Amino acid sequence: MPKINASTVAEHRARQREALVGAAIDILVNEGAAAVTPAAVGARAGLARSSVYQYFDSTADLLVVIMQEAYRRSNEALAAAMAAADGPVERVEAFFTESLRLGAEGAHRPAAALMTADLHPACKEWLTALHLEQVAPFRAAVRDAGVPAPELTADLIAGMLHTALTAVDHGTPLDTVTERTLELVRRCLSPAGGTVHADDAGPA
């Protein structure tokens, strides 16, 4: 009978599953999707390969769970940040601020690694759908801001976020990147595309 390191069997299984998911994410980010195998994940988590199959049927199953977990955690944080913001520009700012904070923690790396992995086309399509679901509130806020060509504007601003995340990854201080990015976002969303006065800009 395996030792149970929790007050209940259900809690024990939940902890083991979480440990396996964490190990799989670590391998994915640092070694690539091809390195995510039940044997490797079990070894990283300190469990036998046979134990892995009690929770996941295959490598593909592991990757699907990684996709779900990566987006679920980020989406919850983004939704909470945007819910606390007043007005469409402020919601965009909240989305960017929280995205950069999550990026500094490495939350975007599993999805980024999967985007470049040699996945089955159906998995690629699902990954794209998860990404579109995540950015939908941001794009809605851009539309609500009443800017010209809102879809194009959202695409262009999203490009800024990607660049900002790359800057954070490369070591530029989070506060510096966030402050400069929000300044540019406000300019893009101002009525005339010009300078937004402090009274109108919302929180930095």
Tell me what the structure shows.
The chain has 204 residues and is mainly alpha-helical. The protein folds into two domains: 1-56, Homeodomain-like (Arc Repressor Mutant, subunit A), CATH 1.10.10; 64-201, Orthogonal Bundle (Tetracycline Repressor, domain 2). The chain is built from ten helices and no strands. The chain has helices at 9-31, 38-45, 49-52, 59-83, 88-104, 109-115, 121-144, 150-169, 174-189, 198-201. The longest helix is centred in the middle third of the chain and has 25 residues, at 59-83.
- The CATH class of the largest domain is identified as Mainly Alpha
Range of strand content: under 5%
Q: Percent range for helical residues?
A: over 70%
Task: Write the element-wise H/E pattern from the N-terminal end onward.
Answer: HHHHHHHHHH
Mean pLDDT across every amino acid position: 85
Number of domains: 2
Major sheet: none
| Low-confidence sequence ranges | 193-204
Q: What would a concise description of this structure say?
A:
This protein has 10 helices and no strands. It is mostly helical.
Which terms summarize this structure?
204 residues; mainly alpha; Arc Repressor Mutant, subunit A; Tetracycline Repressor, domain 2; 2 domains; 73% helix; 0% strand; disordered C terminus
